[in-house]
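thread: overnight batch results

M.L. [08:02]
morning all. the overnight job finished for the chain we discussed friday. pasting input first so we're all looking at the same thing
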Amino acid sequence: MTKHLGQELYIQVEDPENVGTYVDFCGITSTDFSMGPEMVDRVVPECDGDRTKPASVTKRAGNIDLSFSGSGIAELNTRTKAIFDAARTGVTLKFKVIVPAYGSFTGPAYVKITFTGNTNEDLAISAEFGWESVPAFAVAA
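M.L. [08:03]
and the structure it wrote out:
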């Protein structure tokens, strides 16, 4: 099994000046990508015996969740301004998430930005993303 560095999992945004080209989301130093079904509880009450016993709880698969987030230092430039504006106005931008040795997910997504400031430290940022529709998947070469 091949190991990969965390920095190989990264988020890119479509370059507003060159449509179809993706550039790194500047300042992001930590990224997360999760995928899988939401777990839905299936509660089964006791029917044939002692009804004072707790119900059995099992799980079933719900909707498939593909979500991603990132955090780091708030780099203020033309690219990140477009991302911040999208968060402020509630519009989507096209993003690409690259998962090393697996593939990439590309499509329009909403973004929520949180700025965090502490005295004598760089302004920090965290970003949560939600796909507008099922993203396109391309297998890694």
